[in-house]
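S1.2 Input.
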Amino acid sequence: MEGGGGQRGSSKHAAGEAEEYHCHDFQWEDLRAEVEANPAFSYHLSPFAPTAGTSQPPPSSDAWRSFHRRHTSGKFFKERRYLLKEFPELNSKGSENVLEVGCGNGSTVVPILRSSPGITVYACDCSKETLEKTNEIVCNTRGVDVKDRFHPFLLDVSTETFPDWLFCKSCRSSRLNNCNMIEKLPAFLTDDQRCVGGIDFITMIFTLSAIPLDIMPAILERCVSVLKPGGLVLFRDYGLYDMTMLRFLPHQRVGFREYMRSDGTFSYYFTLDVVRELFRASGLLELDLEYCCVSSVNRKNSKKMQRVWVHGKFQKPTAV
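S1.3 Output.
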């Protein structure tokens, strides 16, 4: 599950200009004042009240499966080259484990594997077809050695818990589980491994926004459970008043700051306070949290585009 809009860069921030992706072209507070003073956007600001006698269908992972089936071509793939600048921790020369939650077509996986030969990436998604396409893209990307380093697996993080083999041994013990109790190991784990040893980094890149707000705490709790003490969650997602939010029509609102597209896919738009509270409630320590505000111009129609993303790093406390 992955928000497709998050990977679409502007002409200003094309390949080779990754250093411009995470910047402050404008102040979020200035954009906020502009939006809130515009009567045309007033419906985005009001409390959400469903129309009497009508109801919106609940967001479904099936919609994202259908979305990725429609966009399986290589043209939709755009590698997130800015990722390693924004999260330099991923440039590690060690042998860390990374979990990409909602890997989509692998646009986050590829730069990690390319830059850090010692890192192993475990990537989950709710769509089998997406995982197959991701594996094809990653394995056929020039300059990326994936042997024993890339392991996609099927999992709907909105409804399912992570498999036992993903936990570190100490976390597994706290859950009263034992490595020898695993009935079936994935093909990439041998009998003498039994456990990947836990996760050093979890990347959540335009993933959490595809899930309703009331489900997010449970998802973060699951993520924290497989994270090693001292491990990091690296987060990037849609921010409040991003241009894609302002394009939604009143009938597409399904909650406060929650919207549903015509294809059934869902999107939530974050404030810093909401992100801060979500991650704090999950037991993580805030290391970095800010708006990323990028201004660009659409080449086709010459319209100014103001993108707002939330960028954050959160750490699992180390054992005392």
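S1.4 Remarks. The CA atoms of residues 13 and 20 lie 6 Å apart.
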